[in-house]
Amino acid sequence: MGSQVLQILRQGVWASLTGGWFFDPHQSTFSNCFHLYVWIFLLTFPFLLYMVLPPSLMVACVYCLVVAVIFTTIKTVNYRLHAMFDQGEIVEKRNSTMGEPEEEPAQGDSSLPRDPGVEMTVFRKVSSTPPVRCSSQHSVFGFNQVSELLPRMEDSGPLRDIKELVREQGSNNVIVTSADREMLKLSSQEKLTEEPGKRDRTSSVWRTQAIRRRHNAGSNPTPPASVMGSPPSSLQEAQRGRAASHSRALTLPSALHFASSLLLTRAGATVHEACTFDDTSEGAVHYFYDESGVRRSYTFGLAGGGYENPVGQQGEQAANGAWDRHSHSSSFHSADVPEAAGSLNLLQPRPVVLQGMQVRRVPLEIPELDLLDQDSLHESQEQTLMEEAPPRAQHSYKYWLLPGRWTSVRYERLALLALLDRTRGLVENILGVGLSSLVAFLGYLLLLKGFFTDIWVFQFCLVIASCQYSLLKSVQPDAASPMHGHNWVIAYSRPVYFCICCLLIWLLDALGSAQPFPPVSLYGLTLFSASFFFCARDVATVFTLCFPFVFLLGLLPQVNTCLMYLLEQIDMHGFGGTAATSPLTAVFSLSRSLLAAALLYGFCLGAIKTPWPEQHVPVLFSVFCGLLVALSYHLSRQSSDPTVLWSLIRSKLFPELEERSLETARAEPPDPLPDKMRQSVREVLHSDLVMCVVIAVLTFAISASTVFIALKSVLGFVLYALAGAVGFFTHYLLPQLRKQLPWFCLSQPVLKPSEYSQYEVRGAAQVMWFEKLYASLQCIEKYLIYPAVVLNALTVDAHTVVSHPDKFCLSCRALLMTVAGLKLLRSAFCCPPQQYLTLAFTVLLFHFDYPRLSQGFLLDYFLMSLLCSKLWDLLYKLRFVLTYIAPWQITWGSAFHAFAQPFAVPHSAMLFVQALLSALFSTPLNPLLGSAVFIMSYARPLKFWERDYNTKRVDHSNTRLVTQLDRNPGADDNNLNSIFYEHLTRSLQHTLCGDLVLGRWGNYGPGDCFVLASDYLNALVHLIEVGNGLVTFQLRGLEFRGTYCQQREVEAITEGVEEDEGCCCCEPGHLPRVLSFNAAFGQRWLAWEVTASKYVLEGYSISDNNAASMLQVFDLRKILITYYVKSIIYYVSRSPKLEAWLSHEGISAALRPVRAPGYADSDPTFSLSVDEDYDLRLSGLSLPSFCAVHLEWIQYCASRRSQPVDQDWNSPLVTLCFGLCVLGRRALGTASHSMSASLEPFLYGLHALFKGDFRITSPRDEWVFADMDLLHRVVAPGVRMALKLHQDHFTSPDEYEEPAALYDAIAANEERLVISHEGDPAWRSAILSNTPSLLALRHVLDDASDEYKIIMLNRRHLSFRVIKVNRECVRGLWAGQQQELVFLRNRNPERGSIQNAKQALRNMINSSCDQPLGYPIYVSPLTTSLAGSHPQLRALWGGPVSLSAIARWLLRSWERLHKGCGAGCNSGGNVDDSDCVGGGGLTSLSNNPALAHSTPENTAGSGDQALPPGPGWGPRPSLSSSGDGRPPPLLQWPPPRLPGPTPASPASTEGPRPSRPPGPGLLSSEGPSGKWSLGGRKGLGGSEAEPASGSPKGGTPKSQAPLDLSLSPDISTNASSPPRAAKDIPCLDSSAPESGTPTGTLGDWPAPAEERESPAAQPLLEHQY
After folding, report:
1. Which of 123, 318, 1421, 1502 could form a disulfide with 338 if both were Cys (CB 3.0 to 4.6 A apart)?
2. What is the DSSP-derived secondary structure letter of residue 1031?
3. Per-residue pLDDT tens for 967-987?
């Protein structure tokens, strides 16, 4: 603890005061002296110049020049030294006692680029394709087969080592057999004799270095394709390849000594060690290391087969001791192997995966080789092999002074990094030199001006030195640094801020002296006077002198964060913009606002300079008002992030760039989200194109009507009262009545959703009447009331300014009116919940309290909006502080908390001063180390986090194959469960904005934070940008099984308080539906509140079953194997390639022996206990036993094929099924690695097959490689389907006994269920595409558990509790966590700041920080939700308006009107009758003969029973597109017909009707009972027409809309006979609802006799337009 405090004081506190200089005892004397002398020079040089020399500009220039020269020299040397390390040449210095020269260049061609040497050598395994058949070749570490190397090894002499042989041969691989081991032993012993104690002294150091650097091995990328092939044939070729491309990965003979110790001599009569490389005789034993680092042997058997075995377990301790002894020796005696391990312990055969060695950095010479560290091999999380070379000779680097002139430099990179910060690139170096010179010039210029005297001169020189020194060696980490490690941006913060402050001081002094502006009095304050400028100058001067303390406390952010913050604040508070998501979006948003303000300013200035007639408004001012409202509406509906807009523009203007990006993304599964976003933005733009014109015209008309001037004495107060009443009812009363605890007094909401009483929600949330009322009142408030308030204020103020032109500056007034109007309108459109209070305070303050201070209602309203925004922040901060430090609920997480609590009480006044300052500058107020002491942090934008961090899911698409097979990366619960939060983010993207508009989350604003809590999902939703119809948010998902502290806080937000009956110390109870006194008091002292207890959102319910309990006994495993076999047979019979497989000669020849009598596959993996078709007589699997069990199933599956296949017992189909079933079961046994009866190996093998790890090791199964689809399309899905069938077996054991039921069940599961491994990218795609059900087998590897679970997902609607958290509480805790972990370096995993505090949800909030500060399992990217994507809100409002939608609505309306008028005028009927089939009088409009008679098909099944009438005329047609988000298609001909057989047309007695050419004007089609007109349309704000009660059986076709009376067939108008309902026709609008497909035939349509006899039963004629 003491050393950590000293480190913080030295590297944090002192370094922040000095700009980065501190004494580091861990560094060299040269480094500390260099730092000290440089800092002293930077401090004393300007001070001495100012004190000694006379003040002049020449001295300032000399000072600036000296600083520039020094910084240029230091930066240049630093840059050149790093370049020397990157690309320089090594000069080795040999030991003179060995008789070698002192210095000589490193080996290799001098013309080639030199390597700087190996700082760290990390060897990683390189996976190769698992071999089909094992052989001794697989025991070689590498890729080449170098059998030709062995004879030269025998001739090279007994004392030659492998290093020399490899140099001669130029190969990177070698194989050592028993014939060569003696030579290697002698060579190694000679080396050990020469250096007896060298290894002992350094072995511990090497191992420590290996362990320290082991974790860095995981940072290597996946090896390129060049590694997977053969390396160059010589080391020189490897060097030339590396010179051509430094990124090319090569293999070196790094494991040669390791390979020499792999081949162990075994004693035994039947087995023998392989003599040569190609020795594959019976009993030949080859030794190797598998991919897990386990010593194994491979023994060849008969016919080239064999088994892979571990080294015998008998005498394991002795064997391990022998291996440990030989880990420090380069030779190995075969006699050292314990004799007890003579017998081979055979296991199931498993393949041998070649393990190559990949080196990250390649030296030019081959290093001295050493055996691999066995401890590091087994301890490494990456399963990497690491090797450290023995201490090499001292070397130096060539530092080129001039071309052809170089000097030797003996230095290392780590020492250079400790000496100076590295600057990458020429631009960064030039920037550093330029900033240092500018700091010197501006600082000395202020000294010359005389702003500092006495001791403040020295203080100012200290500030200058700290700013300049930070450019050489900055404070790392800085108090304002948002990240761990070196932050290069923070190094430029001090000089940039210093230059800005110096320029500001100089500018304010110049303005105060010159006074270029006349003083302006605003709200009692005199602006732009001399005293004003001098006062501001003095404040800036004092602030500059306080730089060391400002940066110590971290009150100024890094420069890019400050830029984003300033632009966002100016745009939000000055122009009514929304929050920014990055510095680029902040620049774009502010530029857009400035452009709009500049456009409007010209109209406003011209309008107020024009004389106004009495009681009239100039046209130019009305134009200004119309443009102001229209532009404000458009800007409020646009996001600050132009990414999607630019993508849409690029797809239109530059389609070739879009196609190129699509081609690069085709390798991954397509994501529909970008297309949906572009479509939504396109709809918004189309709607704005229409609505802006409509708004501008209406606003122009209202403004020009002089209503605001004529009624200005009364209209203003009427609008204020109306806005206040509607706002109070909408944003206070309704949300309070809908809360879970209204006013913290009632125990239940007064206005409950329909799902409130449901224990488990069954569908989507229903739209309640109060939700419709809330949305409607918001629309009235946004689009009617507040625009009228702003227009009234604009008109009155403009009239006042024009009436008194001498009192106001017209240019300034026009600018203020433009900015204020733009800001107020955009704020009203974007965030109406806060407007009514702002308006109320404006009226009360400036109309009743201080009317003399009023500057016009528009400016008063604008000022009050700024003031209210800061007052809201102050209120939230005070609530957070008081809630957090309340003594009756304080939770001390550590001893420091208990110590700080009483000391914080005397400093309460300072705490409230900090609260005021933090509210003014919108900075977080964070608790120090989680205690009751609060300090102000630096300013941040609403996004808060500077980094764009989001979770990257680990699956098979971004991991190496070898790691997938060995360790299954990402198998932890957190990585696998993160997909559910990703799906939750997608669901929120569709519904969040609409739910906010409907009031389901209560009142909201930019920066608000909510917690969504359900049974297992707990996520924090951070609202960042809130616009008009859009919300940008970020979701942070917490762990499913969190810590103890997290569980306590989850319980606090999910448990109810209705049962609390306490009142102080007694329990008198409470009134019905009213909280008790204790409960009400406790709820008021929380930083959160429950806004909704039943929020319905679409998601996945997760159910997991322990696989061990389902497969514990052999009978259950036998059922699984049986389903496995049946599933394989099913997929064989369903495959379209079955005929090709049956006719394949290779497959037929390989499977022909299985038909021989007495043939049985006697693999040890087959057993009677798990194989139902096991032949006990032949001790294996035979074709007769297989047919006795599965022939019926094979024949049934074959009968379901469309093409007949031979189904006899000895047919090729049965033989193929038998071969694949044997192969699949053998693969399961091979993957299990054991023949034991235990469950764990079986589950391991089942999981391996489930994820697709099939290892074909038997030569009898190699026929499957004739077509890999046999594995991919038959066996692999078979094992997955078997797991699903086995799970269903527990619910209904006898369900699948019949072949038909089993076949249908497999087909149904295949259609609706996705069964996949969770690491497969298809799993993520299936979840994000809303697949109804999914199933997976998960291997859970935790610290305390190793189990297998069957995960079942079902898509359904989930219920969440929505908890609104005080946003200042979230920002404060996030800032405190960042300061504690980054600057104060508190790495204690049980630190007090993350202990549970239920009143503030401290653990949950701190856990949601960006990693590594927090530990969320998922952090979403910034996601934008649009109101148009909400289906219920779209149905309520009718969707966006566009020109095409208006055209379609006009066309439909004209068609209906034309039909109605024609029917009413010609047949005497009403409009309703005109929509019936027959057309009535419309037949007189056509020359076509009437079809008076019906065919027998039409009259079949008809009767006298009349059907009930259909629904009446539908609601008004909508101007928008369809309700499902898709625009209705254009009219087409011919329209789609009903499914089923085409009905015959009624026969005509007068001859055939003349045909007409098809065209777009034909708006009807011919149906079973006559002609049909266009389908119905959905109206504005109404639902679609319901289907007629007399509809035919089977419902409405999916592509058709239910018809109302206007679209029913024409029937008799006889009053005694009700009209018959029509059969549905195809609708040409995509807005029609979908329903089932009709199954009825024409006989299902009984026609009354009256209809057949009525003249009105004639079909409607076609109309062409």
Report:
1. 318
2. E
3. 665 566 778 888 899 999 999
Average pLDDT over residues 13-37: 91
What is the Cα–Cα distance from 1312 to 1352, expressed in whole angstroms?
13
Rounded to 10 deg, the angle between the 619-636 and 673-704 helix axes is 160
Q: Are 602 and 675 in contact (CB under 8 A)?
A: no
Q: pLDDT averaged over the chain?
A: 74
**Claim: this prediction has a pTM higher than 0.85:** no
Q: What are phi and psi of 934, to 5 degrees?
A: -110, 140
Distance CA 800, CA 793 (A): 11
Neighbours of 272 (CB within 10 A): 18
Q: What residues contact residue 677 under an 8 Å CB cut-off, 6+ apart?
A: 644, 1424
Among 169-183, 1017-1031, 1607-1621, the least confident range: 1607-1621
**Main-chain dihedrals φ then ψ at residue 1361, nearest 5 degrees:** -95, 130
| pLDDT higher at 1465 or 1451 | 1451
Predicted pLDDT of residue 378 = 38
pLDDT attached to residue 1302: 92
Residues in the chain: 1665
List CB contacts of 1639: < 8 A, sequence separation 6 or more: 1593, 1594
What separation, in Å, do the N-terminal and C-terminal C-alpha atoms of the chain show?
89
**Whether 553 contacts 547, CB under 8 Å:** no
State the virtual CA torsion across 1087, 1091, 1097, 1099 in degrees, nearest 10: 30
Greatest alpha-carbon span in the chain: 127
Cis bond before residue 482 (omega within 30° of 0): no
CA distance 594 to 1107: 63
Residues whose CB falls within 8 Å of the CB of residue 1280, separated by 6 or more in sequence, listed in order: 1250, 1315, 1316, 1335
Lowest average pLDDT, out of 267-276, 590-599, 738-747, 1244-1253, goes to: 267-276
| For the chain, the helix, strand and coil percentages under 3-state DSSP, each to the nearest 5 | 50, 10, 40
Strands 520-522 and 122-127 turn out to be unpaired
Token digits for 192? 């050990």
Name the DSSP letter for residue 4. Answer: H
State the pLDDT at residue 521.
82
Q: How far apart are CA 1281 and CA 1261, in angstroms?
A: 22
Question: 1273 or 210: whose pLDDT is higher?
Answer: 1273
How many CB atoms within 10 Å of residue 424?
10
Report the alpha-carbon distance of residue 662 to residue 653 in Å, rounded. 16
The tens digit of pLDDT for each residue in 392-416 reads: 556 788 888 888 788 888 888 889 9
Residue 850 is classified by DSSP as: -
**Pairing status of strand 103-105 against strand 90-93:** antiparallel
Q: How far is residue 1035's CA from residue 1012's CA, in Å, rounded to a whole number?
A: 10
Measure Cα distances from 819 to 594, 826, 1601, 1629 in Å. 9, 11, 50, 45
Query: Taking Cα atoms as reference points, which of 17, 936, 943, 40 lies closest to residue 478?
Result: 17
Three-state secondary structure of 1372-1413: HHHHHHHHHHHHCCCCCCCCHHHCCCCCCCHHHHHHCCCCCC
Q: Give the CA radius of gyration of the chain.
A: 41
Buried/exposed code over 1619-1631 (b: 16+ C-beta within 10 A; e: otherwise): bbbbbbbbbbbbb
Helix extents (H) in 546-618: 547-553, 559-575, 583-609
* Distance from C-alpha of 1483 to C-alpha of 1462, rounded to nearest angstrom: 10
Candidate from 29-33, 43-47, 1481-1485 with smallest mean pLDDT: 1481-1485
The one-letter code for the residue type at 1463 is A
Residue type present at position 1551: G
Going by C-alpha positions, the residue among 828, 867, 833 that lies closest to residue 1005 is 833
